[in-house]
Design goal:
It is a single chain. This protein has one domain. The longest helix has 21 residues. 59% of the residues lie in helices and 0% in strands. By secondary structure, it is mostly helical. Helix 1 runs antiparallel to helix 2, helix 1 crosses helix 3 and helix 3 crosses helix 4. The chain contains five helices and no strands.
C-alpha cells in the first residue's frame, strides 16, 4: 500500500469514528461526512507533494477550503485519540508520517521539481 492510499484509508477510518459518534450512523456515513470524505480524497490526489506528502498538520501548503479545514480539525481532534485503540497500525504509520518534513514547492530547485513530476530537462530546454 502506498502512502497516499494509506492516508485515504486513515482519513476514512477517522471520519467513520466521528460520524458514528456525532451523527449516530451505523454502517454508512451521513451525507455531510460522505461529502467531506470525497473532498479529502480529491485533495489527497491533487497534493503537490505526492508520495512525499507530510501529514496535513505539518504541511506548509493548506489546500482545504476554510469550511472543510474546520471540519477536518474537528474530526481529527475527536477521532485521533480513538484511532490508537481501533486502528493501531494506521495510527502508528500516521505518527511516523508526521515526522516527515516537506519543503514548500517554492523552496525546491527547478531540478527537484522536475524530478518529482517525472519530467527531465532535455538539451533543448537550456536554450530557451
Amino acid at each position: 500500500m502506498n502512502h497516499i492510499d494509506r492516508e485515504n484509508q486513515t482519513m476514512g477510518k477517522m471520519v467513520g469514528i466521528y460520524c458514528r459518534a456525532h451523527h449516530h450512523t451505523k454502517d454508512e456515513l451521513c451525507d455531510d461526512c460522505a461529502q467531506f470524505l470525497d473532498y479529502a480524497e480529491v485533495r489527497l490526489e491533487k497534493c503537490p507533494y505526492g508520495e512525499d506528502k507530510p501529514t496535513c498538520a505539518n504541511c506548509p501548503v493548506h489546500c482545504y477550503k476554510p469550511h472543510f479545514r474546520a471540519q477536518a480539525k474537528a474530526i481529527m481532534r475527536f477521532s485521533g485519540p480513538r484511532m490508537l485503540l481501533r486502528h493501531p497500525l494506521l495510527t502508528i504509520a500516521h505518527y511516523m508520517d508526521g515526522r516527515r518534513r516537506a519543503l514548500h514547492p517554492r523552496e525546491l530547485t527547478r531540478e527537484q521539481r522536475l524530478e518529482k513530476t517525472g519530467r527531465f530537462p532535455t538539451l533543448g530546454d537550456h536554450d530557451r
